Structure formats: structure tokens, C-alpha cells
Amino acid sequence: MKPQILSTLPGYGGRALVSDLAAGFTVAMVAIPLSIAIAIASGGTPAQGLVTAVVAGFLISALGGSRVQIGGPTGAFIVVVHGVIAAHGYDGLLLATAMAGVILLAAALLRAGRLIAYVPEPVINGFTIGIAVIIATSQLKDALGMSLAEVPAEFLPKLAALWEARDTLGPEALAIAALTGGLIVALRRLAPSFPGLIVAVGLGSGVALLLDWPVETIADRFGALPAGLPVPHFEVPALSKVVEMLPSAVLIAFLAAIESLLSAMVADRMIRDSHRPNAELMAQGAANIGSALFGGLPATGAIARTATNVRAGGRTPVAGMVHALVVLAILSFAAPLAGMLAMPALAALLILTAWNMSEPHLWRGYLALPRSELLLLLVTLVLTVLADLAVAIAVGVALGLLLRGATRVRSRRIRHR
To answer: Where, if anywhere, are coiled coils annotated (predicted)?
Structure first.
């Protein structure tokens, strides 16, 4: 469980530092709008998203088992976090996040990092697409500038409410969302290593400001962002509250483990390296405890930001630590600028993030899967969207293991004939 930074620092030179500084700054420019947008979509505040990027992002890089992993709030948590806040309040989320951190520390000590192999891939793909669908639909109100007092959390009632409010569509908000989305796609294709997200969201927000359009900003909805990190805070919870939050904590820990280890495996392929799974779980545990102490959100390894780090030249954990410090500097000295970002621009960013999460380039391949695997993917997807993420994962994993067992029994019978 030795952190990768202890292996990379011996012999660390000036050229590596310059490369990591450049990569860390680039990733920070991507992380800022994403952290804000994910926090808002989760039912939190922009400040809570930025705090998570700083605290959890620093700890995941400093203690993690991957050389290039970037941590912070991610889209996979939006559905869970939103549900926990709605049911138990933000204090309940903080407790669940801290408990998830403890669970991840225990998993690391038990060397459970390799257990991800037992989660069927169709289950992972199914709930990832399902989460993407939920994220995208949750952003339609802001992207379309609709006047809707409250958007239902459930998928079908949400669609019905949006349809009822169709006459309130705001053309200015739609124009800003379309402009921002188009810029994100164009910059991603023309300059993949350029931090196009912050540029696109900034330009889209700037157009709304210059034209004095009636488009809501972060400051309009949430007020001014605080400068710097809050003071860490912890209260010993009652045992009954711990028991109440345990299911949420287990789900957060499960998602953090899966996404961080998947992200680390993607990074391994990009830099031809091998991560240390148990060290990664240890870092995720520490990061979620740290984030909860500072009032942040659950965190995990972020695949998109990790890939951005690699493309920008980051090759050691120093780049991830620099990314967290740059976000802290901007939070401390440029918070008013972040408050001017337009909500439709952030909505467009999240809709495109959801599209990328769903990995549409793989859809045709899913149709070629064996029927049992395709069914497993679809069942998980539908349950994620229409029921509950915990139910979807539980049913998907159980069904997947049953199908895997049945396949093995069938193979043995064929061999014995």
C-alpha cells in the first residue's frame, strides 16, 4: 500500500516539475467548472464542489496508488448525493461520506482492491449509462431556462413536469447553452490538450453578461462564493444516526472504489504503468474523510480529468497536487469571477459530460454482446433510471453472478460429455 509519490520522488528533477506544473494548471482549469456544476447538480453549493476538488484532490494524489490519478467530485455521485441530501440533509451526507471513507480504509487494509474484477462489466456499463441519462435530464431546466419552482427527483415525474413547463422556455438561456456546448465540442476536437471547458463556459457566460440577457448566474442562485477553505469541523454522531446512514455510506464507498480503480486502469493503459489498487483505496478513504471534515462532497478518481492530466504531460502525483493548489488559489483570490458563470453554460457542460460518460462509441458493440450480458446491461440501466441506484447495483451484481455461475456449470457439462 505504498503511495506512488514515494516511488516517483527519488530522482525527481526540474524537467519533471515543469511538466507537472503545466499539467496541474491545465487540469485545474478543467476541474473548476466541472466541480461547480457537479456540486450544483448534486444539490450542494458551488463552494462545496471546489472544496472537494481541493481537499480530496490533494489527498488522492498525495496518497494514491496511481502516478497520474486526479480526484474530486464526479458525475457518478450526483444521483446518490442528491438523494442523500433530500432524505437526510447535508449533515447526513457529511456523515455518510466520512463513513464511506472509513469503509474504504478498511477495504484497503483487507486488500480488497482486486475485488472489482467480480463486478460484471455489463453492470458497470448499465449503471454508468443510467446515471448519464439522469444527469442529462436534470440539467434540462437550466439549459432551457424554464421557470419551474421544483423539479421532481423521479425520472418520469421529472419529464412530465418539464413538459408541463414547456411554455416557459427561455430562448436566451437556450442560446447560451448551445453556444457553450458547441465551443466545448469544437475546442475538444481542435485542441484536445487545451483546457477548453473553462474557456467555453467563460465565453458563454461572458456573452450573457455583455448582452445583459436575463440568464441566471451562480451568484444569483447561491450568493457570493467564500474565499478559501472553511474550518474543518467534526461532531461525534449518535449511534442511531450512524446506523441510519450506513446504507448510503456503503453505496458511496462502492461507487468510489469502482470509479477510482477503473480510472486508474485507464491511466495505466495511457502511460503503460501499473497502479497499486490497495494504496488507491487507502487514498480514497482518506480523501473522503478529509472532504467531509471540510464540508465537501464524496470524491473519487475522475476518468476525464485523469486523461486530461496525462495528455497535458503529467507523469507523477505532483501534477495532481498542483491541480488542487491551483483550485485553492482561484477559490481564494478569484471567487467573484466564478460567481459570474451562467447556469445554462454549466448545464451544457454537464449534459456533454453525461454524453461522454455513456460512451456512445461503444453502443454498437453492446448490441453484439451475448443475450444474457445485453439483458444484464439493460436491466441495470432501467433500474438505475426508474428505481434506485442501490437496487440497480444489487440486482445487477446478483444477476451477473448467477449468470456467470450458470455459464460455468454449462461449460463443465459440455466438457464431461
So the answer is: none
The answer to whether the CB of 69 falls within 8 A of the CB of 261 is no
Domain interval for residue 251: 4-227+235-416
**Whole-angstrom Cα distance, residue 407 to residue 361?**
28
Closest CA to 251 of 103, 85, 89, 37: 103
Question: pLDDT of 174-231, one tens digit each?
Answer: 999 999 999 999 998 998 878 888 899 999 999 999 999 999 999 999 988 888 899 9
CA gap 335, 351 in Å, rounded = 24
Query: What's the rounded Cα separation, in Å, for the pair 199 and 191?
Result: 12
- Cβ atoms of 188 and 356 within 8 Å: the answer is no
- The average pLDDT across 124-145 equals 89
Q: Which helix (H) or strand (E) holds 318?
A: helix 317-333
Q: Give the type of residue at 338.
A: A
Q: Which residues contact 233 (CB under 8 A, 6 or more apart)?
A: 293, 295
**Domain count across the chain:** 1
- Under 8 Å between Cβ of 287 and 59: yes
Dump pLDDT digits (tens) for 283-342: 999 999 999 999 999 999 988 889 888 888 898 999 999 999 999 999 999 888 888 999
- Among 204, 205, 187, smallest CA distance to 196 is for 187
DSSP 369: S
Q: How confident is the model at residue 410 (pLDDT cuts 50, 70, 90)?
A: low
Q: What does the alpha-carbon distance between residue 104 and residue 99 come to, in Å, rounded to a whole number? A: 9
